[in-house]
Specification:
The complex is a heterotrimer of chains A (215), B (201) and C (374).
Chain A (H helix, E strand, L loop, with lengths): L1 H46 L1 H16 L2 H12 L3 H25 L3 H9 L4 H31 L12 H10 L2 H29 L9
Chain B lengths: L1 H32 L1 H16 L2 H12 L3 H25 L3 H9 L4 H32 L10 H10 L3 H28 L2 H7 L1
Chain C lengths: L1 E10 L2 E11 L4 E5 L6 H8 L7 E6 L2 E2 L5 H6 L1 E4 L11 H5 L1 H5 L4 H14 L4 H4 L9 H13 L5 E5 L7 H18 L2 E5 L3 H7 L2 E6 L2 E6 L1 H6 L4 H7 L13 H4 L6 E3 L4 H11 L3 E5 L5 E6 H7 L16 E3 L4 H10 L4 E5 L5 E6 H13 L5
Helix pairs in contact in C: 7-8
Classes of the chains: A mainly alpha (215), B mainly alpha (201), C alpha/beta (374).
């Protein structure tokens, strides 16, 4: 067992490290882009709830299309480029964040908003000082979901030969090599778990003390 | 040829759904009844989701080879989370007063589960099942890599030979499938809406 | 001065207020009351433009409110709503300083102001300033809500059933405090309520609305003497002048609602009840509701052992009064060591009620102005 492990690192150690970095690069860039777009869209959508009746179901349909197809389609148009993967993953990352931002914002108690208006806050101040802080826990949990999914979907980058941990998985499946599959699967699961944990910490930090459940 | 792929895909989804429902409900009920197992069960189904689908399928393939069975197991493992979580949440959110009333009437734990708690939790549990089916349609696409056939095979090949037309058709089929499942299960959900009945009591 | 001139308000085709005209003088405490749907909250919210006026005009010190920037207007008017409305993401200090911050006061000035305000209602700054709303009792939250409205020293304060969600005892205390604040600061307060007792207790003038029209606008005394319509009379309750102060018994002046606990109750439970009800002590009874003594928060804090029953901590030395004894005796007893309340017992020592200063005052008020259902 130990020998298998050391053999694995001997032959693939460097590749593993660079793959992890490529993987992380895809995840971070796409989630960051996805987050910004989703956050802004979520705020806009919450200003016009009528629009969301149409938009949210459309996005839901988008979400049911497997990432594979997405990367495939973009690949046909854009070719083997990082941007192909990043766009596909970013689109995926948008939905959970958008939905949680929207839901978080519209579920802020109307009385609280009225109190804020009554204090003389303009709409921007109400949004910035009251609504967003109160929706923050929901927004961050959307971010957590997106990040974990993206780590998982980023494996697909290897499908069009762009590396990342998917490289191990694909090669492993093709050559029926257990060690290679696990070599891709385990680090990617660990990354997902670690990022999830990190975001939990961030979420705790961003949750106003007055809203934390535990004393 | 394409009908065949669609049928194969549906087969994967339906067979997996049966197992997901059985195991998901079972795990959910266990987690609800034995508080100590709850954390472990939720942790387990949560961790499963963090493993990339493809890798998960690859690992299962090591044990079961490139077969239909491998894909089904993969789909089941991957779509357990919504069912388990919603079962536990659904059972948990029942008004303690109702539960107390049932205990007061002398119902055993098992009777309570079948006659009171499960029916009341059903709308939420059903939502979990719905999410799980929709997810599994997407997951099944990956089945092609480990010999599961279905639309995943069509899509993969279309990408290889850069056949945009077929890729589009296959994608459309997937989306329609998701929509159909969503619609059908939404209708069933409405029919079974216990919460509305509860409101009229 | 606030003037309503032929104000009209409609939601789509539904006319809520047709032609409303009245004046509120500076420093006046006006309660707006009426049956639900009478337009009282709408009237209030039109003043800070949370609701738009559809016709006529509202003037503050001669200026039409529509000519003032809406956010400037709101910053210059304090606003307290029902169900508290504190911002849950901000602590007490941040909540109170919302408007001063919007007005860009300096940090030092804000700090000074908050300390001054918290002192006024006996909430020690060090203890409460950094607590969050969910760490306060209902009464404390509503106090902070009132302070938030007062923070920037507005001349006008609007209150929309601010004490509606509180239990009767806390409500009583807060009413007293608010009345004190008003007497000290002489702000113009417009206070919506559906509780006639509250209106009579608090208001300089009561504005009685029904169907968006004024039925009567008068001082409480005037309204009690000459209720304008049968509806107002109904709100005021049955009027009776046959009482004589010396005939009053403890039963007449007590409040029936008492927070009791059993002597076998555990300390933690007691403190949680106290916290919930915002009281410092509870009446202890046995299982037959017979009086045993008083349990005080400070005794639990200093001597209580978590998980133990309160039996050893019960104070038995407090004086009690019998239900049929003369109210005047009870009153002098209450005055003697400045007691918070007196426990009233039936002959078999079951607890009948408690007498507090405000229950006494209410009884006397009803004697003078006619009886309400207390």
């Amino acid at each position: 067992m130990f020998k298998a492990l050391s053999d694995f690192f001997d032959s693939y150690g460097n590749m593993l490290i660079s793959s992890i970095f490529i993987h992380l690069k895809f995840v971070f860039i796409s989630v960051a882009i996805g987050f910004i777009i989703a956050f802004i869209l979520g705020i806009l959508l919450s200003r016009v709830p009528k629009l969301s009746v149409i938009l949210i179901p459309i996005l839901s349909i988008f979400q049911t299309i497997p990432g594979l197809v997405f990367i495939g389609v973009l690949f046909l148009y854009l070719g083997i480029k990082d941007i192909t993967v990043i766009i596909a993953l970013a689109i995926y990352a948008i939905f959970p964040i958008l939905k949680n931002t929207y839901v978080g914002l519209i579920s802020v108690d109307k009385k609280i908003i009225e109190a804020a208006q009554g204090c003389g806050m303009n709409p921007f101040q109400v949004l910035w000082k009251i609504e967003i802080p109160l929706a923050m826990p929901s927004i961050i949990s959307g971010l957590r979901m997106s990040t974990i999914y993206t780590v998982s979907w980023a494996v697909l980058a290897a499908m069009i030969g762009l590396g990342g941990l998917g490289e191990f998985v694909y090669r492993g499946i093709e050559t029926n090599n257990t060690t290679l599959i696990l070599g891709g699967a385990i680090p990617s699961a660990i990354i997902a778990i670690l990022l999830g944990y990190l975001i939990d910490k961030v979420q705790y930090h961003f949750t106003p003390r007055g809203l934390r459940k535990e004393p | 040829m394409e009908t065949e792929a669609v049928m194969q895909h549906l087969g994967l989804v339906c067979v997996s759904f049966i197992f997901t429902a059985i195991f998901g409900l079972l795990l959910g009920i266990i987690g609800y009844n034995f508080k100590r197992t709850r954390f472990i069960i939720l942790w387990f189904v949560d961790i499963l989701q963090t493993i990339p689908v493809l890798a998960l399928l690859g690992i299962i393939m090591i044990f079961f080879g490139a077969t239909f069975r491998t894909v089904v197991i993969g789909i089941v493992l991957y779509s357990l989370l919504p069912v388990v979580r919603n079962t536990i949440v659904g059972l948990e959110q029942i008004d303690p007063a109702i539960r107390e009333a049932a205990i007061g009437m002398g119902m055993t734990k098992r009777q309570r589960l079948y006659k009171i708690e499960f029916p009341l939790a059903f709308p939420i549990i059903f939502t979990g099942l719905k999410i799980s089916v929709i997810t599994s349609i997407g997951i099944a696409v990956f089945g092609a890599v480990v010999g599961g056939g279905g639309l995943g095979y069509t899509i993969n090949r279309a990408i290889m030979i850069q056949d945009g037309n077929t890729l589009f058709k296959a994608t459309l089929a997937l989306v329609l499938m998701s929509l159909a499942f969503d619609l059908i299960m939404g209708l069933i959900e409405k029919k079974l809406d216990y919460s509305k009945r509860r409101g009229s009591v | 001065m606030i003037e309503f001139k032929n104000v009209k308000k409609a939601y789509q085709d539904n006319v809520v207020i047709e032609d409303l005209s009245f004046t509120i003088n500076d420093g006046e405490f006006v309660c707006i009351i009426g049956p639900s749907g009478c337009g009282k909250t709408t009237t209030l919210k039109m003043i800070n433009r949370l609701h738009k006026v559809n016709g006529g005009e509202i003037l503050i010190d001669g200026t039409n409110i529509n000519d003032i920037d809406v956010n400037e207007l709101r910053k210059s008017i304090g606003y307290v709503i029902q169900h508290i409305g504190l911002f849950p993401n901000m602590n007490v200090k941040q909540n109170i300083s919302v408007v001063p911050t919007l007005l860009k006061w300096s940090k030092d000035k804000i700090d000074l102001r908050i300390k001054e305000l918290m002192k006024m209602i006996n909430m020690p700054f060090d203890e409460f300033a950094y607590k969050y709303p969910n760490e306060l009792s209902g009464g404390q939250q509503q106090r902070v809500g009132v302070l938030r409205a007062l923070a920037a020293n507005p001349n006008i304060i609007l209150m929309d059933e601010p004490f509606g969600a509180l239990d009767p005892i806390t409500r009583d205390v807060l009413q007293d405090e608010l009345r004190n604040i008003h007497d000290q600061l002489k702000k113009t307060i417009i206070f919506v309520t559906h509780d006639m007792d509250e209106a009579v207790k608090m208001a300089d003038r009561i504005l009685f609305l029904d169907g968006g029209k004024i039925l009567q606008y008068a001082t409480p005394e005037e309204m009690l003497k000459n209720p304008g319509t049968p509806l107002i009379r109904e709100f005021l309750g049955k009027i009776s002048y046959d009482y004589n102060a010396s005939d009053l018994t403890c039963e007449d002046v007590m409040r029936k609602r008492v927070y009791t606990v059993y002597n076998k109750e555990r300390t933690l439970k007691c403190t949680s009840i106290m916290k919930q009800r915002d009281v410092a002590s509870l009446v202890v009874v046995d299982h037959n509701n017979r009086y045993l003594g008083i349990i005080r928060i400070e005794d639990i804090k200093s001597e209580g052992v978590p998980g133990e029953t309160i039996e050893k901590l019960i104070r038995k030395e407090d004086i009690t009064v019998l239900i049929n004894s003369n109210a005047r005796d009870a009153f002098s007893e209450l005055e003697k060591d400045n007691k918070e309340y007196l426990v009233v017992l039936k002959r078999d020592r079951q607890v009948a009620g408690i007498i507090t200063r405000s229950s006494m005052a209410k009884a006397l008020a009803s004697l003078i102005w006619g009886e309400n259902d207390v």
